[in-house]
Write a structure and sequence with these properties.
Helices cover 42% and strands 20% of the residues. It has 12 helices and 10 strands. Helix 5 crosses helix 10. It starts with a helix and ends with a helix. Bound molecules: phenylalanine.
Length: 339
Amino acid sequence: MSVLDRIKEIDKEFEAEAGKDITAAGLDGMRVKFLGRKAELTGILRSVASLPADQKKDTGKAANMLQRKISERLEEMGKRLAEEKRRDRDEIDVTMPGIAASPGVPHPLTQVMDRINDIFVSMGFIIADGPEIETEFYNFEALNIPLDHPSRDAFDTFYIEGEHLLRSHTSNVQIHLMQNTRPPIQAIMPGRVYRPDAVDASHSFMFHQVEGLMVDKGIRFSDLKGTLSGFCGAMFGKDTKTRVRPHFFPFTEPSAEVDISCIICGGKGCRVCKSSGWLEIMGAGMVDPLVFEKVGYDAEKYTGFAFGMGVERIAMLLYGIEDIRFFYENDIRFLGQFK
Ligand code: PHE
């Protein structure tokens, strides 16, 4: 066999091997076999010089071309292998065991507040917001709570500096809202309030209220009763009964406390309702004309009602939570029960 024929054979051999699936190790093997120091083709190239003159040119050319072709092809194959390897690494292995996601839930107080908000929004109320750091004017004076009046004791307050204080109820937002808009007003105002109470199972220095305000021409006490019994039915169940008892607040006249039939015992009397069958749920009343005067509303033209409820108390009744401090400790064993 002539050397030229031998070169053609090597070419065929190479093609046969290159056509197969190959690993990185296999590729190295081919490189040694076809291009290495001891490779046949390398030997041929080395011996071209000693060939008879008439074969030298063609054989040399063929050997050189084959060597270049093999080297290019091997390089190409190497690149393809690297590319495949990269793609394999990026691919998601669906057989791998997953990492269980354990999604959190809104805080129980947030859940209860969201429900309260949703019910009032469904009745046409908008949600308003106001400052937690307040002046005496908004927290007291505009609400007809005079500076030196004993009714202020009911709203024991954290004072900050000068005139500033932490609001002791959300009623301050009523004043901002009335100052900033004209009737009709139909809004609820959820938020944090602060009172320097000693912390125990039913007291916290910070808690949440949802305030409500409706002002227009011809708003009557029956509108207040209808709105609140509608709310209580949606919040606590449609069989829940509502009643109003006379009470006193400086900013409403007449004032009332609103009770619902006990949601624990259904009204028969139990430990939670102290055998009365009723649970006090919020304060309410018709906006005092003196408050309208403070915000520049014509008390002859407009009437309105306001109410305020404690979110913690409602959440404790709904879920049977006996200690208010659970809400603020952020113990995952407690919070995890509200999924
Ligand atoms: N601000 C009162 C409180 O904190 C609740 C209230 C609001 C009462 C509106 C009447 C009208 O106790």
